[in-house]
Amino acid sequence: MTPERTLDARGLRCPMPVVKTSQEIKNVSIGGILEVLATDPGSVADIQAWCKSTGNELVGMEKGEGVFKFWIRRMK
C-alpha cells in the first residue's frame, strides 16, 4: 500500500491528529491513500470514528514502537 501523502501527527495530543487528518485528506485525490503517523493513544478511536462519520475508508492500522500508523482511503 503506497500512500499518496503522509501526515506526521506525532507528538500532537487529542484532538489535533484528527483535526490535521481532516485538513490533509483534502490534499489526497479520491481513491488515494493518506498515511497518518500519531503517538496519541486516543487517535485509535478518534481516527476510526472520523473515518466512519466522513465516509472515508480506514484500510489499515498498526502500532509500531510508540507510533500508530493509519492508512485512510479518500472516498469522496
Detail the topology: elements first, then pairings.
Blueprint: E1 5-9, H1 16-24, E2 33-38, H2 43-54, E3 57-63, E4 68-73
Molecular structure report:
The chain has helices at 16-24, 43-54, and strands spanning 5-9, 33-38, 57-63, 68-73. The model has no long low-confidence stretch (mean pLDDT 96). It has 76 residues and is α+β, with helices and mostly antiparallel strands. The two termini are 19 Å apart. The longest helix has 12 residues, at 43-54. It is 28% helix and 32% strand. Helix 1 (16-24) packs parallel to helix 2. A four-stranded mixed sheet has the order 1-2-4-3, with helices on one face. 26% of the residues are buried.
